[in-house]
From TrEMBL:
Gene Ontology BP terms: actin filament organization; apoptotic process; cell motility; phagocytosis
Gene: ELMO1
Organism of derivation: Hippocampus comes (Tiger tail seahorse)
Residue ranges constituting the ELMO domain according to the UniProt record: 295-467
One Pfam family it belongs to: PH_12
CDD domains (alphabetical): PH_ELMO1_CED-12 (cd13359)
Stated name of the protein: Engulfment and cell motility 1
Length: 702
């Protein structure tokens, strides 16, 4: 009779005694004298067993009988106030470890433990390991979210900020101090203002110049927290600091291009910094163009002037109507939708005024490329012109979507791009590269205005594929795009279509199931043919390797294994006649592999050789007779074990068979679906039509 579902078997340990195995009823169990004793999980976490988590105990768990959380908290509260430095240090170590458990944390906090720790920090008498473990315990206790961050004094904040601002500070103390500052800023707007008065980004920069990645990670985390919580009037100021070449070059050289690989937490913090920087563009992205704003209208006029190099003074004498006509013609050449009043094009949000900012930046900083794109498209008369204005607006909107401008950073995202840390106007430069890509792709597709959305889809794919490769610089990004022409995108799409998930539809899966037995039979025949050709095996003793050989092959009718000793390694196939011994296939009972083989159980060095173990197999025949093999390589091992299993009517399970099945199945599927290119395969078969009301249409042969 199976044991009740609520009963588990566990081992209980306690000091000075052997572990005791008992059964626990998770519903009604209780621990006597629970005020003084408790059970802990006997692993690295050492979490206490409570009413809330006792149902998580599994069969075979090891539990440790120990002091109750309340008694432990009481003892540690007293011990950390010891006058002996050694005793105090040991107590703080125990406190830092125990504070990870929320049951203990509740009891310790209820004894005003947090206040005691902050007083110890504010006193300034502790340093080194004493201070490090004090701060560690504080961080662990605060991470449970039991105590509000708003309860801490300015003196405590100044002390923590002082550890960060100090030139030479113990690494562990610095790391905990940075973690505390980050939590303060993120959890309280009031604390943000107090922390911001004590510490600046300039004071944090030196910590990025070291080699400790944990310190660098926490430093960037504090910068991100200050950035995230800063009021609007201060964000632009902070953005200016972040855009400065000094900070960017330090992050680039000391963090991103450091020989040490970037861990997940560092990648997340760099991603957050990237998102927060781009979020400064949100105001412009969500600002519509004001038709009455002369400064904004002057930007559009500047785009026209740079493109067509018009002499403004020569137009002063022209009539108003003539100038309007000329402007309308030029704005059409620039690719605006509204030729008469292009300002209307920038009323869409997003991208709003950000699109106009990008266009002006491109026109001023990449003037040759800008003029070339505008002129070569405005002079075309074959309806294949790429509208620069409309393209720029839609491209800006697309880039904002790709980079998630205006969105809060994801909690578990690590998708940062090193190239955005290489330039102080990285978004604008990113746009300049992508608008030239768009123009190039438009020409490669020989697109017209009707194909606008198709072109944008291809450009998006080109950008996303290039970003996936994580280019280290904008030049490298540009180079990657050069290799992703429209023709290359078509090839990639075709390849993916033939290889990936669109083969998971029901009709495709049914076709696969139909083809697989045919391919498995083909693989089986290949294995048996290889066994018929035969293989030369070395004879290996348990004591030393000997250069003696034996040969084994399957008869053409697949009924007999012929084998025998050889004087030397053969140059080709060995005929059946020269092999003296025979083993009928009908007598084979099983094929044994690896350490279960009898010649692998013998004592000696051979037993310890892992490579030989992976190549060993044996044939069991009659009652306890074995024919033992050690294949020359992994390929022959797979061929023979597959072939022997096929002879016995068993499944072929080797890695070689799986690889062959994948390769052959993929090739066969591609061949059969070759004629279905660009044809949508339905998920379900078409419905069977209703029977006709009569069969008068059937031709009567008589």
């Amino acid at each position: 009779m199976p044991p009740p579902a609520d009963t588990v078997k566990v081992a209980i340990q306690w000091p000075g005694a052997f572990a005791k195995f008992i059964e626990i009823d998770q519903v009604i169990w209780s621990l006597g004298n629970h005020e003084n004793f408790a059970l802990q999980i006997a692993d690295a976490t050492k979490f206490y067993i409570t009413e809330k988590n006792r149902n998580d105990i599994k069969n075979g768990s090891i539990l440790h009988l120990t002091t109750s959380p309340y008694q432990m908290a009481l003892q540690l509260h007293e011990r950390i106030q010891s006058s002996s430095m050694d005793a105090k240090l040991e107590a703080l170590k125990d406190l830092a470890s125990a504070s990870r458990d929320i049951t203990f944390a509740l009891d310790f906090i209820n004894m005003d433990g947090i206040s005691l720790l902050t007083q110890m920090v504010e006193s300034g008498t502790d340093f080194g390991d004493l201070l490090s473990f004090t701060l560690t315990a504080f961080v662990e206790l605060m991470d449970h979210g039991i105590v509000s961050w708003d309860t801490f004094s300015v003196a405590f904040i100044k002390k923590i900020a002082g550890y960060v601002n100090k030139a030479a500070m113990d690494t562990a103390v610095l790391q905990r101090s940075l973690a505390i500052l980050e939590s303060m800023v993120l959890n309280s707007q009031d604390l943000y203002h107090k922390v911001a008065q004590e510490i600046t980004i300039g004071q944090l920069i030196p910590h990025l110049q070291g080699t400790d990645q944990d310190i660098q990670t926490y430093t960037i985390a504090v910068i991100n927290a200050l950035f995230l919580k800063a009021p609007e009037e201060r964000r632009q100021e902070m953005a200016h600091i972040l855009a400065q070449k000094q900070l960017r070059s330090i992050i680039l050289s000391n963090v991103i291009r450091s020989p040490m690989p970037i861990n997940d937490e560092m990648a997340h913090q760099l991603y957050v910094l990237q998102v927060l920087t781009f979020n400064l563009l949100e105001d412009r992205m969500m600002t519509k163009m004001d038709h009455q704003d002369q400064a904004q209208r002057d930007i559009i006029f500047e785009l026209r002037r740079i493109a067509f190099d018009m002499d403004c003074e020569s137009n002063n004498g022209s009539s108003t109507e003539k100038r309007k006509s000329m402007y309308t013609r030029d704005y059409k050449k620039l690719g605006f939708i509204n030729h008469v009043n292009p300002a209307v094009d920038f009323t869409q949000i997003p991208p709003g005024m950000l699109a106009l900012d990008n266009m002006l930046y491109f026109a001023r900083h990449h003037q040759d490329a800008y003029i070339r794109i505008v002129l070569e498209n405005s002079s075309r008369e074959d309806k294949h012109e790429c509208p620069f204005g409309r393209s720029s607006i839609e491209l800006t909107k697309m880039l904002c979507e790709i980079l998630k401008v205006g969105e809060l950073p994801g909690e578990n995202c690590h998708d940062f791009h090193p190239m955005f840390f290489t330039h102080d106007r990285s978004f604008e430069e990113f746009f300049c590269i992508c608008i030239q890509l768009l123009n190039k792709t438009w020409k490669e597709m020989r697109a017209t205005s009707e194909d606008f959305n198709k072109v944008m889809q291809v450009v998006r794919e080109q950008i996303m594929r290039a970003l996936t490769l994580k280019p280290n610089s904008l030049d490298q990004f540009k180079s990657r795009l050069q290799n992703l022409s429209y023709a290359e995108i078509l090839k990639i799409r075709q390849s993916e279509r033939m290889n990936q998930e669109d083969f998971q539809s029901r009709p495709i899966l049914e076709l696969k199931e139909k083809i697989q037995p045919e391919i498995m039979e083909l693989i089986k025949q290949q294995r048996l043919n290889r066994l018929c050709e035969g293989t030369c095996f070395r004879k290996i003793s348990s004591r030393r390797r000997q250069d003696k050989f034996w040969y084994c092959r399957l008869s053409p009718n697949h009924k007999v294994l012929h084998y025998g000793d050889l004087e030397e390694s053969p140059q080709g196939e060995v005929p059946h006649d020269s092999l003296q011994d025979k083993l009928p296939v009908a007598d084979i009972k099983a094929v044994i592999t690896g350490k279960d083989c009898p010649h692998m159980k013998e004592k000696g060095a051979l037993k310890q050789n892992k490579e030989v173990l992976e190549l060993a197999f044996s044939i069991l025949y009659e009652s306890d007779e074995y024919l033992n093999f050690i294949a020359p390589d992994k390929h022959e091992y797979c061929v023979w074990t597959d072939g022997l299993n096929a002879l016995l009517g068993k499944e072929m399970t080797s890695d070689y068979t799986k690889s062959d099945m994948d390769t052959l199945l993929s090739m066969e599927m591609k061949l059969r679906l070759l004629d279905l290119e660009n044809i949508q395969i339905p998920e379900a078969p078409p419905p069977i039509p209703k029977e006709p009301s009569n069969y008068d249409f059937v031709y009567d042969c008589n």
